[in-house]
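User: two proteins, same treatment. go.

Assistant:
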Amino acid sequence: MQRNVGGIDRTLRILAGLGLVAAAATGTVGWWGWLGVVPLATGLVGWCPPYALFGWNTCKARTPA
């Protein structure tokens, strides 16, 4: 698995995932808040299956040293 989720994208995914999971854990939102595990996991791992399927990549291009 090659990383396909860049820095800003990862940060936003982690924050959104944590927010949804926290809201679900405190009962602020319903069961659907636990879906925040998906963006949280893809943000932590740095790889997103739909991005791979469509050939998208938000990582910066690496230049040879």
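Protein 2:
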Amino acid sequence: MSTGVERSEVAREAGDALEALRAGGRVPRALVGFDGFIDEIIHVVDRRRSMDRGDFDRIKTIPEFAARVAGAAGKSANIELFVKEARYGGNGPLMGGALGRLGSAVTFIGAVGREDDPLALNPIYEPFASRCESVIPIAPPAHTDALEFTDGKIMLGKAQNVQSVTWDRIKEVVGLERLREICEGADLIGVTNWVMLGGVEGIWAGLRDEVFPSLSDRPRRFMVDLSDPAKRTDADIVRAMGLLRTINARTPVTLGLNLSESQRIARVLGLGVYDDSSSYSLGAMVRRAAEALRDSLGLDTVVVHPREGAGGADGKSSAWYAGPFTHNPKLSTGAGDHFNAGFGFAQAGGLGLAHCLASGCAVSGAYVRDAESPDLDRLIGFLRDLPAPD
């Protein structure tokens, strides 16, 4: 599913399916956790025209920034960071907030508390909490400097606070019985940011061993986002992927990966799906990688989402969808989390793979154009009149 009439038809079909989902009162409920960050959205100053606050030319691309940094080797450099805004962040809150805007009843558990009282909501998260049915703080948030460029972003994370987010901490604050009740009512359970939270694997195992066995057999999805495993060892990745396989035996797992994440995991697993990438179009390569990763990992669904679209495999089918990519986003931080929200929303609602891919691309595409999460009306309208890729 890539271009032209077919691409537009899939998008319109996805919009119609989402409209029917809402009309039938079948909008999925979700539990999301467990991180939390305060993001400072930053432009890097290239040259100032004056000392007025925003009167400067920015460094627009990551290669330009890399060249500026490399030029300081053996010398020094003073690089100005212009903070556009501070906003709530973290993969979990961004995904959960996007689901809430789409109409999901979201319960969020995570690091969204105050520094002086981790069980009280940090004021910066009040707009997020207004989108959710329930928010349960268990720790203060960590912090991220999000350097935005036209060709991507560099996230500089200070993650100490979120290391207190563990399975034991969740049980202490939430209680095991309440957690079972929340999971029983959820159609989608999203657990994000394995890379930066040392406690995530314990949370996965705790859900598997102490929660999932007590739940009814009705359909629900378990969606995982790793969040750039570049700093984690190969052994870490092998262990985590093995743990997800055991969870998939109880509840279907969807693993969402960006392109670089999929390349790293493919390499660790010894899969050669990217070795001859010049022989394939991007869509064919990503679709092929999703199929191979799913087969090797033994998971229900694997999705790979580069900036240009998304490909996936779920055992029944595989597909590539060319998204509404734009070279001029108003906001790019959180685009992947919004893709996860759109895909997870559609999948938990029972849509087929191609329509889930279109929904994920559309939520992300609307978000980067509007600099805000789309509601369901905006998403359906966006799908029915899908912009062409730049």
